[in-house]
UniProtKB/TrEMBL annotation:
Gene Ontology terms for molecular function: ATP binding; ATP hydrolysis activity
Assigned protein family: Belongs to the ABC transporter superfamily.
Key words, A-Z: ATP-binding, Nucleotide-binding, Transport
Name of the protein: ABC transporter ATP-binding protein
Segments forming domain ABC transporter: 2-229
Highest taxon, organism lineage: Archaea
Presence of keyword NADP: no
Covered range of the whole protein: 1 to 230 of 299
Keyword Transport: yes
Organism from which the protein derives: Salinigranum rubrum
Length: 230
């Protein structure tokens, strides 16, 4: 589904991502783990076509990352999702469905189904008055309005309480069970170990370890976090 070769991004002289290579299979949940500034967001934005690589290639299916056709079948969840505070979840999701030309009746049904699956309460409340966890659920629902094949989630569980964190991670696993491919980033191996098929660990723009979570644990054991800080 995704093939990344020699992907690199420099901001001025600063190398944010230094020659990444990885591939993600269809239906897989793939984690990118690393500390602040590791290059996770930059990598995800290059996959989503939101940041132009300085070198290398990223393809999604048969498209180059960023191709307008590919972007229509993509759901991107940014680390901080700006929501229109005066809208309700329903009006917000239908607004985005319109942007994707989703027929009104399909949008209505899909929106209700997604909000039910996410168990979102207080659907008539203004987004501005919702808790962080509720807002994150609405942002996740927004990433699904166009029924995309590929979901790119930037730290979907960060800043949430343990219950909501588990909820979001569990929901991510359900999405993959329904055939979606999911790439998501996290600071913490704990956030990926229960859901990811494979993981890369990034530090200072480089992939420093890769494999299944047990493989990474076996390879690095208790030194995994030293990988982050060296
Ligand atoms: P975090 O966990 O804090 O979100 P991250 O792993 O997502 O970190 P990135 O946001 O990709 O890391 O940033 C990687 C590096 O690139 C950081 O040092 C960051 O300051 C730098 N960087 C990111 N975007 C820009 C930009 N637009 N201009 C200059 N430098 C940038």
């Amino acid at each position: 589904m995704i093939r990344v070769n020699g992907l690199r991004k420099t901001y001025g002289e600063f190398p944010a991502v230094v020659g990444s290579d990885f591939a993600v299979d269809r239906g897989e949940i793939f984690g990118i783990v690393g500390p602040n500034g590791a290059g996770k967001t930059t990598t995800l934005k290059m996959l989503a076509g939101l940041v132009e690589p300085s070198a290398g290639t990223a393809t999604v299916g048969t498209y180059d990352a960023g191709d307008p056709e590919m972007r229509r079948s993509l759901g991107f969840l940014p680390e901080e999702s700006p929501l229109y505070e005066d809208m309700t979840p329903r009006s917000y999701l239908r607004f985005f469905a319109d942007l994707y030309d989703v027929p009104r009746d399909v949008a209505r049904e899909r929106t209700e189904e997604t909000l039910d699956r996410l168990e979102l309460e207080h659907r008539e409340r203004r987004l501005g008055d919702m808790s962080k966890g509720m807002k994150r659920k609405v942002a996740i629902a927004r990433s699904l309005v166009n029924d995309p094949d590929l979901l790119i989630y930037d730290e979907p569980a960060s800043g949430l309480d343990p219950l909501t964190t588990n909820y979001v991670l569990e929901f991510t696993r359900e999405l993959a069970e329904r055939g979606k491919t999911v790439v998501f980033s996290a600071h913490n191996l704990y956030h990926v170990e229960s859901v990811c098929d494979r993981v890369v660990i990034m530090n200072r723009g480089q992939i420093v370890a890769r494999g299944t979570v047990p493989e990474i644990r076996d390879e690095h054991g208790s030194t995994t976090y030293r990988v982050f800080t060296t």
